[in-house]
Amino acid sequence: MDEVCEVCGLSRKHAIKVLGGKPGAKGRRGRSGRGRQYGVEVSGIGHAIWKKAEQPCSVRLQAALPGWLGSYEKHHGVLSTELREKVLGANARTLERLLAGKKAGRSGRRWHGRGSHGLKQQIEVRCGKWEVEGPGWMGADTVSHGGGASSGDYLWSVTLTDIYSGLDGAARGLELRRERRAHGRGRDRGGARF
User: Fold this and answer.
1) DSSP string, 110-150
2) How many helices (H) does the chain have, and how many strands (E)?
3) Fewer CB atoms near the end CB (10 Å): N or C, the chain?
4) What average pLDDT does the segment 170-178 reach?
5) What's the rounded mean pLDDT across residues 33-45?
6) Is the pTM of this model over 0.70?
7) Helix, coil or strand: residue 42
């Protein structure tokens, strides 16, 4: 073994692999490990449910499968017990592997481009002091209605403010209500919208 390593310039481990192989065998001898457990049927069912569930990630798809499988069976026929167990038994990594070829735009590398770049080229953004001659320029702001907490479920709204008049949609609605009450026009049925 020492002579082979010295003459051929191989490491001991590599020399053992070379000498232990069958004559004429090239490359890998075949697939090692456990055989495939999930076939085309499981992949097709997973893909159909994935599309109908609006393409969630594999972890969420795994959690959603029990709820969606009943609907799938109504439209495509009842599944055999064995196939149903396979679909429900697939873990998130298996579902990811089964759907890998069907996801659009998956080239093996992640895309790190910014999708907003094209919009920034088309929309004029002004920074600094606003000098406008008339209405029409808006400032946008997001508002969280969470009561000071950022955990749990709460509402987000977008507030648009006209830069020229300084009014936003909510302020204009309050102003119109006050005018109607002052002029005796009765109950207000809603404010004006921009």
Assistant:
1) -----TTHHHHHHS----SS---SSTT-EEEEEEEESTT--
2) 8, 2
3) N
4) 51
5) 83
6) no
7) helix
Q: pLDDT above 70 covers what percent of the chain?
A: 68
Task: Round to the nearest angstrom and report the end-to-end CA distance of the chain.
Answer: 86
Beta bridge partners of 162: 138
* Span 12-24, pLDDT tens digits: 888 888 888 755 5
* Residue ranges per structural domain of the chain: 40-102, 134-146+154-194
Q: Rounded CA gap, 98 and 94, in Å?
A: 6
Q: Does the pLDDT of residue 112 top 80, yes or no?
A: no
Q: Are 46 and 87 in contact (CB under 8 A)?
A: yes
Name the nearest CA neighbour of 194 among 129, 175, 180. 175
- d(CA 2, CA 36) in angstroms, rounded, equals 41
